[in-house]
Amino acid sequence: MQIYIEKDYNDLSKKASKIIADFIKKNPKCVLGLATGSTPQKTYDLLGKMRKINKTSFKNIKTFNLDEYSGLSANNPQSYHFFMKQNFFDKTDIDIKNTFFPTDFAPDYKKYDEKIKKSGGINLQILGIGSNGHIGFNEPGSKFFSKTRQVKLSKNTIKDNARFFKNKKDVPTKAVTMGIGTIMSAKKIILLASGKNKSKAVFNALCKKVSTKTPASILQSHKDVIVILDKDSAENLSG
Ligand code: F6R
Predict the structure, then answer these.
(1) Residue 66 beta carbon below 6 angstroms from any ligand 1 atom
(2) Which residue's CA lies nearest to atom 15 of ligand 1?
(3) Which of 83, 135, 196, 203 has the fewest C-beta atoms under 10 angstroms from its C-beta?
(4) End-to-end CA distance of the chain, in Å?
């Protein structure tokens, strides 16, 4: 595991976008696994800009999103389909036909894992982390070999996600997520975390024993993980 601690969110986003752009340049037909949320937002923005600055092309990549809320249509501004379109896809030359979301495979989510496999597997998976240590929407207690499925969101996650919704009652309580097994099958993983509210989860994930109580701790057993943190999220790591 390689760990970078950057000064702040901006530097974290620069570092992540550079690593991802270099990867795409070397592997122009790669398959990416994508996270949504506030953490990767600037990374996606910078990647979009790189298209112009250093001619990174996304034309031949395929993408599989980690998760999507149940019950929100793709054109709902709170959906992850919408987020990706607005924050990443529309800023690149990606072929929208090559972008996939687990809810599009309802109700047979096994097909999402099969589709990933048929595409050659995920070469580079981008992850954020929940304040409770979740990855994707694999909440504490999720099985390490789990596959894509519908899950109930924890109270903690519903509370964290409420900041994106006008009314509390509109915050989805269910989602479809890649499983931890699906995530761990990715050949390379980049985990991003920013802000003091992630420092406990980051500490538990990186420094404590691997446990289903902190789903992200399983990443300790993956052979190719890059962790990019800002100082705030790394405040509990010493030395
Ligand atoms: C989103 C996802 C989640 C988020 C996590 C952190 O696709 O899979 O695991 O990465 O909830 O969200 P932010 O970045 O908004 O703090």
Answers:
(1) yes
(2) 37
(3) 196
(4) 16
- Of 172, 178, 180, nearest to 70 by C-alpha is 172
> How confident is the model over 122-149, as a mean pLDDT?
98
According to the model, what pLDDT value does residue 237 have? 95
Looking at residue 170, which CATH number applies to its domain?
A: 3.40.50.1360
Q: How far is Cα 237 from Cα 160, in angstroms, rounded to an integer?
A: 23
The residue with tokens 């696994």 is 33
**Cβ of 102 below 6 Å from ligand 1:** no
Distance 93 CA to ligand 1 centre (A): 25
Give the domain extent around 209.
Answer: 2-230
State whether the beta carbon of 81 lies less than 6 angstroms from ligand 1. Answer: no
Q: Please give the tally of structural domains in the chain.
A: 1
Cβ 35 under 6 angstroms from ligand 1? yes
Residue 138's beta-bridge partner residues? 135
Q: Which atom of ligand 1 is nearest to the CA of 37?
A: 15
Question: Residue 194: helix, strand or coil by DSSP?
Answer: coil
State mean pLDDT over 28-56. 92
Looking at the domain assignment, is residue 239 inside a domain?
no
Give mean pLDDT, residues 124-134. Answer: 97
Q: Full-prediction pTM beyond 0.85?
A: yes
Asked whether residue 236 is assigned to any structural domain, the reply reads: no
Ligand 1 pocket test, pick from 42, 66, 101 with the greatest ligand atom count within 8 Å of Cβ, gives: 66
Catalytic residue numbers?
67, 132, 134, 139
Burial class (CB in 10 A: 0-12, 13-18, 19+), 79: buried
